[in-house]
Amino acid sequence: MNDNMREDRPLTIAGKQYRSRLLVGSGKYRDLEQTRAALDAAEAEIITVAIRRVNIGQDPNAPNLLDVVPPSRYTILPNTAGCYTAKDAVYTLQLARELLGGHKLVKLEVLGDDKTLFPNMPETLRAAETLVRDGFDVMVYCSDDPIQARMLEEIGCVAVMPLASLIGSGMGILNPWNLSLIIDQARVPVLVDAGVGTASDAAVAMELGCDGVLMNSAIALAQDPVRMARAMCLAVEAGREAYLAGRMARRFAASPSSPMAGRV
Question: Strand ranges (DSSP E) for the chain?
């Protein structure tokens, strides 16, 4: 075996291994039936749920997402979408823990404003410290700042999730260099969160060495969400394979595909 070959380690979050490296959101679909079909096509195992926007039992008279996304099949990842303070984020995830029978794995996001949905990092760090002390396994949406990512890891977060570009923008990965810096230093999984627009964006994230990709809008707002979910599944797999294979070196001169020696 080539000594430079990368080891294919399973995605492990908070001690649990996952086959799929594609994490999918549960919002913005036409209805619950389309949600179910898209999640099936994505072959995802971890499904994020916005506790402040989606019913998972808070309202017994409304359709329950868990009827089509059963916890017996999926790992439900409650998130704090729509929270702008550490206090609100902590309260929201404590509510989720009650609704899900003591569930510990959560996704923290504390937003800075309505326009950019960029993370408020001081509030995010404050909330992460509180949640980790309270026994939660925290996956955290953050800026693509390597220093902030390291601070979150040192607090005890089980995964860091830097944005590729603004939430829901579909702009793809705007700063691959920062993502690479975070990946190189991290001892916990690094997953791109926010900004993916199409399958090639997901593939690029995985080729950089990300451990996974989380998305919602890119699938749910596609013209054919179910087909896009399948495309994203394949893109994440292809990007991971390309990362493990190791791309050829970039050259500043042409190199013929066929040997030049011994030509007739």
Answer: 11-13, 16-18, 22-25, 46-50, 75-79, 105-108, 137-142, 159-162, 191-193, 212-215
Query: How do residues 48-85 score in pLDDT, each as one tens digit?
Result: 999 887 777 777 878 888 888 888 899 999 999 999 99
Strands 105-108 and 22-25, sheet pairing: unpaired
pTM exceeding the 0.85 threshold for the entire prediction: yes
Active site amino acids = 107
Burial class (CB in 10 A: 0-12, 13-18, 19+), 212: buried
Distance CA(208)–CA(246), nearest Å, equals 10
* Contact predicate 157/191, CB 8 Å: no
Residue with tokens 């916990």, as numbered in its chain: 188
How would you label 95-106 residue by residue, b for 16+ Cβ within 10 Å and e otherwise? ebbebbeebebb
| Distance separating alpha carbons of residues 44 and 216, to the nearest angstrom | 12
Give the single-character DSSP code of 234: H
Q: What is the largest CA-CA distance in the chain?
A: 80
- Per the DSSP assignment, residues forming a β-bridge with 76 are 47
DSSP letter at 259 equals -
Tens digits of residue pLDDT in 163-195: 999 999 999 999 999 999 999 999 999 999 999
CA R_g for the chain: 19
